[in-house]
Specification:
about 230 residues; alpha/beta; two-stranded antiparallel sheet; 10 strands; about 35% helix; globular
């Protein structure tokens, strides 16, 4: 599986942190009708909420340092750090402070009053930016942010860094035409599954099933699990 993980040791450590802070949840004991609903509408027995990393100073400091390292090594020409609202804003603020760079963020929807921009912070025009977010699934939100930066302030996006990236095939296809300088993440799905088994959160059988699910998350029918209540009678 092609991933965006920059360093596998960091990938495994970040996956461990996600489990330790309960940022990554997996619960096969839930009834299917009570499974987690993702932002994309997918229903699954697993869910990731990187906002929970903020409960631990050690967790968010480690992730902040890892992201900063990636930016310094892979995007040395960065002139501004951009966070995506809402989860990416705190990470962008921490990293911009450490790198002594200006910071802005991109709203989910245009402001209903004032100038009505998506890009907040009134950045200088024609800068080179790196976008920070907590998680990349479909990539739609990040693509929208790249377009907003270009349209509103003529800011060029060098690339983006997330804490995790599910690396769906549709995500890769979405960004290929943009010729970005790089797409990186601290961890991804293979790291999470491997570490989940090692920490006892998953059996190898469940990890293998989740791996199959991620190949086709919208159509996978979980053949080894009981069907939803009432489906057997249909």
């Amino acid at each position: 599986m092609k991933t965006t993980v920059w360093n596998q040791e960091i990938g495994d450590h970040t996956a461990q942190i996600l489990f330790e802070t309960e940022s990554y949840l997996v619960d096969f004991n839930r009834k299917r009708e009570d499974w987690f609903i993702w932002k994309s509408g997918i229903r699954a027995p697993c869910y990731c909420n990187c906002r929970y990393l903020n409960r631990s100073y050690l967790a968010y400091e480690a992730c902040t340092a890892y992201i900063e390292t990636i930016i310094r090594l892979k995007f040395p020409e960065t002139q501004i750090i951009i966070g995506l609202a809402s989860a990416g804003v705190s990470w962008a603020a921490r990293i911009a402070t450490r790198m002594t760079l200006p910071m802005g963020f991109i709203r989910g929807t245009p402001k209903a009053y004032g100038v009505g921009h998506l890009v907040e912070g009134n950045p200088e025009r024609n800068l080179r930016a790196v976008i920070i977010d907590d998680l990349c699934g479909s990539g739609d939100t990040i693509l929208k942010g790249i377009e907003a930066l270009d349209w509103e302030f003529q800011i060029k996006t060098l690339g983006f860094v997330t804490i995790t990236n599910w690396c769906f095939e549709s995500m890769w296809k979405k960004f290929e035409p943009l010729n970005l300088g790089g797409i990186y993440s601290l961890t991804s799905y293979p790291n999470i599954l491997k570490v989940g088994v090692a920490m006892g959160h998953l059996t190898q059988e469940l990890a293998d099933m989740l791996q199959e699910f991620y190949k086709a998350p919208r159509t996978y029918d979980w053949p080894l699990l009981p069907k939803p209540s009432g489906e057997d009678e249909k």
